[in-house]
Amino acid sequence: MLVKLTISSMRKMFKDYLVLLFGLTISIAIFYMFQTLAQNKAFIESNAMISSVVFIFHVGSVILGFITIFYIFYATSFIQTLRQKEMAMYMTLGAKKGKITQLMFFETFFIGVISLVVGIFLGIGLAVGIAELFMWQLDFQGEGFKAIYPSSILTTVIFYIVLFLLTSLVNAWQIGRKNVLDLLKAEQKQDIVKTNGIKTFIGALLAIILIGIGYYAMTEIEKLQQFGVILATVTIIPGTYFIFISLLPYVVKKLKQNRRLNETGINSFTLGQLRFRMLHLTQVLGTVAMLIALGLGAMTAGISFYHNIETQSSMYHANDVVIHQPTEEDLQTLKEMTITEQHAYSYKINDNGIYYLKQDLVENAPEVKAYDAEFELPKTKRVNEPLPAARYSLNGEEGTEELPENWWTAISTELNTSYNMFGSLPVYVLNAEEYQKVEADEQSVILVQVDDFMNYLSQFETINDNQTELAETYLRKPVENNGGKYGNYLAFKSIASGTIFMGLFLGVAFLMMMASVLMFKLLSSAGADVHRYHMLRKIGVRRSLLKRSIYRELFLLFLFPALVGLVHVIVGMQMFSFIIIEPYTKIWIPISIFFVIYGIYYLITVHLYKRIVLPKEV
Amino acid sequence: MNQPVLHVSHLDKVYGKKNENQYHALKDVNFDIQSGEFVGIMGPSGAGKTTLLNVISTLDQSTSGTIEIAGTNITAMKQNQLADFRSEQLGFIFQDFNLLENLTVYENIALPLSLKGVPSKDIKPNVLKVASKLGIQEIIDKYPVTISGGQKQRVAAARALVHEPAMVLADEPTGALDSKNAKSLMETLVHLNENHHTSIMLVTHDPLSASYCQRILFIQDGQLYKEIHRDTTRNSFHQEILDVLAEFATPNELD
Ligand SMILES: Nc1ncnc2c1ncn2[C@@H]1O[C@H](COP(=O)(O)OP(=O)(O)O)[C@@H](O)[C@H]1O
Ligand SMILES: [Mg+2]
């Protein structure tokens, strides 16, 4: 009988349960999606630029786990408030407490299991979608990534089953502990928020000062070094909370005091709702803002690093492309580029070695990347070391002198006379007389600088393919990377994009989770608002006006943490300005990703909220 | 003065759709309320009092019949027109106060004016005026949770009156008040009615509250059953009401 009652009442409260199911499903989906990557050790290790990425994923898992626990905690308190009155009614009708407790337990558990099944399917979908999107964006193969990852499914199932069991138990225990009157009165509890003017003002001031110091520390990170990072952390975190505890309520209060604004249409209600809700949600809003900053920061930094690859790959090459024994196609391709410097050098190659003509080299000395001092990035410099001897070699072969350092770099790096190109042949630089004696056909190599490396990636690919083919004729085996700047660029990109892919994945998972926490928290307090909207309808507020009020109120609640998080990130990127040339060039990409995710959550929240609070029209 | 503020004719209300369980809550109800009248609606629980009030207040739709308020036929209106009509022509007082806890007393009272688009500079004098009528000037900046039930109902009354509606509708306004507060609220309503010519329609099942009215309509099983006028003292009117209510019980007991 009781079971029947429960099922029928669950059907009645379908829309409330829908919110719960939806929230849990999203949480599970995100958790699973994150696990597909976090547990795929092989993938992480083979694609990570730095070993700490594995560690970061472990930390990420832990943080996500904690957020999830909070999430479930909200969820169960939500289910509790939904059911309390009814449970009390059953009790007054004479149902045994034990029976009710049991019922409560199964109900929570039942909903958990449904959302677990749906959530994992959704999680697989998300993992596929997001992974594909980023791989496509980053031009990254991502081999070894699996959206359906059995051990992640297992972890997710175990983690949530344990959580559901625990929360169902706690839930049942709490209901069981209360007496009927407590339960009946639960809904009548009024939310009183006491605010103290002076405290609020001091808090608001503190928020501004702390954030100010933190931002200063981040912009002056070069001077302050590690101290700056610590200073920023210890000021910005409490500062952010103070923003939500004091500054924003203070601002809303000031807004409300503007009578012209407050007394127009339904504004007084919207602002009143906003103020009360903000005071109730300070911790949630502050945490959301902080984690938005983290997630968005991870994504922004990742994308900036991605666009820094070019800078990194030109670290060792002063010239953009080198073409040994150019083919007709190579020469045609060169015509498509805007060339800023071009030199051609003659050389001979036979089974005993590679021989450069000294005169050619000295007359058109190439540029190289030279180290001036240790621990500094190499600088571009034209080779000017004299070469008085008749014979030089790269590695000091018998009867020769070793090449001076910059010439050595010029030949081995800029001209790519390397193992990757020609195998382990000795390399010589000879004067005209010696060069004449070498019995081999004369070849040439072209060294080119262009106006913008990134503009000609497809041309470089053509040339690179031809060079690789050439290298294969010398090495007599498949060549993966012939060692030129473009080859380096590709190698860098493939390693970096793996790391960046993970950074983006992590960032997106966090953003989705945070936004869903906010959504859920807002929806779980919607029940208390129902009577307010009913009342407003009674005194003659148009439905369209009620909707507008909901859109505005929730918009501002979503906006504040987003804005705070965003400003943190924008200022925080200053910290990278000494590693990344232009940290802000592509910042719109992560920001748009963020706003899309966030916007979707906002719309879903508004939609569900409207379903809960808006009275049905007759 | 003697032009009806409310004209109800052949009003029917059926709950439930055609092929479902139907319940005929109002059957051919006809009556008028004159401008400036204070009319009570009484009847046993389930008689259809709240239904009648909801239909008149446009919160619910009638099945057939016409309702005219201040000369406007509301049965043919669309959703938005109804909302506007409520906000302009009607004032409500409910049993459970229905104040917005997230707004101060002042803001609660001011809301109907802001909704009507009254400019901000005209709102304050109006709010203060009605607050002093109801004796709640001192608590104007408080939040509803911090004031007593009697005060809450006065605030609700102030909100119902602030925009000078054609008619005030009250559903069991004294239902959640103790007898002292109930008495004081009823006296306030009488004062408003007598000195400010506010038309009031009051639904109640409390004979003492009802005795403050000038005229009482009794309904039973969705039909008008009886109508009595007060032409003597309040005490004897109270007795008259109790007599009618006793009549109700008798035929039922015979069933
Ligand atoms: N929304 C509804 N659907 C179906 N029946 C209703 C509805 N509201 C009220 N009723 C029925 O109409 C009758 C009159 O109800 P109501 O007007 O609330 O009586 P009261 O005089 O006690 O205020 C009752 O029998 C009630 O069960
Ligand atoms: Mg009633």
TrEMBL record, chain B:
Return one GO MF term.
ATP hydrolysis activity
Keyword list (alphabetical) reads: ATP-binding, Nucleotide-binding, Transport
Family matches, as CDD domains: ABC_MJ0796_LolCDE_FtsE (cd03255)
Q: Name one GO cellular component term.
A: membrane protein complex
Has UniProt tagged this entry with the keyword Oxidoreductase? no
Q: Which InterPro entries match?
A: AAA+_ATPase, ABC_transporter-like_ATP-bd, MacB-like_ATP-bd, P-loop_NTPase
Identify the stretch annotated as signal peptide in this record. none
Q: Which SUPFAM superfamilies match?
A: P-loop containing nucleoside triphosphate hydrolases (SSF52540)
Superkingdom of this protein's organism: Bacteria
Q: Which residues form the ABC transporter domain?
A: 6-246
Q: What is this protein called?
A: ABC transporter ATP-binding protein YxdL
Q: Which organism is it from?
A: Virgibacillus massiliensis
Per the record, the gene is yxdL_1
